[in-house]
Known about the structure:
Chain A is 78% helix and 0% strand. Chain A has helices at 6-29, 43-70, 73-105, 113-134, 138-153, 155-165, 181-217, 222-231. Chain A is elongated. Chain A starts with 5 loop residues before the first helix and ends with a helix.
Amino acid sequence: MRKRIVFPIALIVLGTLCLLAGTYNGLAVAPSEQHMGDVQRIMYIHVPTAWSAMLVLTWAFVCATMYLTFASWRWDHRLEAAIEMSVVLCLLLCIQGSIWAKPTWGVWWDWDPRLTTVAVLLMAFAGISALRYFIDEPVKRATWTSVATIIGYIDVPIVYFSVKWWNSLHQQQSGVSTISREFLIPLLINFAGMLLLLAGAMTIRTRTAALRLEDEIAPPPLSIVVAEEVMA
Amino acid sequence: MNGVVSGGWEFVWAAYAVSAVVLVGYCTHVMNGFFKARVSQERGAKGIGL
Lengths: 232, 50
């Protein structure tokens, strides 16, 4: 068992090193942007967080669909890890966005389509995460959270297209072709770091979910059975 | 007002500091959860704590 988390811990360490390198590059090496100045450097952590959040939410959707199709506990453990990680990333996304909004828009928060849809996503997945703790029966818990995840995931494409469909304070998505190389390098290094860190943390969280379920559904130890029979 | 944002390093540091705290905090929470679950399972298997 001890060997089983060496690899995910290595992923976390490697991810942290990438994030440190990307952050150094973004804060000390990359030039400041023409209009936003140094505040634009928040992009090097905000955008990788947004990309990672979308990926993890999509992974949660895949896990939920696979659980409902194959009824395998493995997919439920992965779903539990993905839901928790989605909440963390959406929360982080809202906090980073709010810190960036203040110097550029003049407000910490605005009920703009992009911000509102991300806030809805955060609330939805926080609710699904809470739902898991309220249901004691493992099969019912896995089924209900899978269904809730699929329903919650409907908001993800709405988040993505919100800046195109409605008038938004938030800028539209930039692509690799529209970003200068100096800005792209720290962005991609931080994204790689974020992915490695998340992969490590989610692998450990998945194994924790498996251990907890084994503990939950394990038959009582023989000593309890004997003690109960003696009491009877 | 010329449409250019000047200064703002305090916001940059704040964004990175919050991100570091959240990510380090979550990774610590995940590792603690794993070790607690493993200890709990080992105890259950040995029948300790009855």
